Amino acid sequence: FYFLSYSQNSGYLEKLKTMASMEACYQGFDPVAYLHYNYTPPRADFEGRSSIVPWKLSCLHKAFTEGEGDILVDVGSGPTLYQVMSGCERFDRVILSDFLEVNRRELQSWLQEGKSSIDWTAYFKYVCELEGQKATRLRSVVSDVVPVDVHQSFPLSPEFLHPSGADCLVSSFCLESVSHDLLSFNHALDNISSLLKKGGYLLLIGALGESFYMGAPGLYIPVVPLDESQVCASLKASGYELLQLCIYHLPPDMKVGVDDVTGVFFAKAKKT
Ligand code: SAM
Does the record's keyword annotation contain RNA-binding (predicted)? Predict the structure, then answer.
């Protein structure tokens, strides 16, 4: 684990170096370990009232019941599917995206062959209890699993998304865990906003108070520790109207040693 710092006065070269270090961190990312750290019990306990995954699924379910459109883009999908299980009902086309090929392969493997490193059945069952049939629908609407880099001004290739943008963006635990400081987080938020139509919705889920998470055994990835007011200020500065902000405070049994997260935010915002 190493500490990265970048002040506003640092030069362009310094910025490039820090971005390269962040990128280097991700070369050891292990989708299987990450899924087990975060998406199996106790964090994914569908019987437990206070478990973090059912909380996220319920937030997404409620947010998506109000929105619909043509294209939903998930920015920084990682190897996970839960974040589009509700959205897939409401959009004709879903684009999944990640910086790492190992994560895109993990998603393709589930989409094409039904194979994945963790069993998503309990997730589908939970969301189906909220909404109805799911896995077939998700397979039929995901049109692409594509590379993304939130540090680029237009993070997806225009061949996958028309410059007019998507109707909705979802992004979970991505921006704060790929940025080396708040300034870089804000730039990344501006960049992904270029993928969204004016009047479109952003569903942003992220970690609060987190300084690292484990991306593989022994791989400690630095995270920008955010607080609630910074999230609100960043959304406002990027031209969003904040419609909803929910906070989940991690109870002691969710602190399993794979990160130092203290809370999770769920924000629904409209691009003005
Ligand atoms: N969305 C998933 C979730 O909810 O668990 C994964 C989040 S994981 C903490 C962060 C993800 O960001 C990883 O899948 C990583 O490959 C991806 N990533 C790394 N660098 C990135 C970049 N420059 N642009 C977009 N995504 C990036």
Answer: no
- Do residues 79 and 38 lie in contact, with contact meaning Cβ atoms separated by under 8 Å? no
Does residue 29 have its Cβ closer than 6 Å to ligand 1?
Answer: yes
Per-residue pLDDT of the chain (272 residues; tens, 9 = 90+): 333 333 444 466 666 667 778 898 999 999 999 999 999 999 999 997 799 999 999 999 999 988 778 999 999 999 999 999 999 999 999 999 999 999 999 999 999 988 999 999 999 999 988 887 788 889 999 999 999 999 999 999 999 999 899 999 999 999 999 999 999 999 999 999 999 999 999 999 999 999 999 999 999 999 999 999 999 999 999 999 999 999 999 999 999 999 999 999 999 999 99
Q: Which helix (H) or strand (E) holds 246?
A: strand 240-249
Q: How far is the CA of 220 from the centre of ligand 1 (A)?
A: 14
The dihedral built from the CA positions of residue 71, 72, 76 and 81, taken in this order, carries a sign that is negative
263, burial (CB in 10 Å: exposed 0-12, middle 13-18, buried 19+): middle
Q: What CATH number was assigned to the domain covering residues 21-271?
A: 3.40.50.150
Residue 189 in contact with ligand 1 by CB distance below 6 A = no
Distance CA 133, CA 39 (A): 21
Distance from residue 150's CA to the centre of ligand 1 (Å): 9
d(CA 105, CA 110): 9
Question: Mapping DSSP to helix (H, G, I), strand (E, B) and coil, where does residue 93 land?
Answer: strand
Hey, where are the domains in the chain? Answer: 21-271
Q: How many whole angstroms separate alpha carbon 113 and alpha carbon 155?
A: 28
Q: Which amino acid is at 103?
A: N
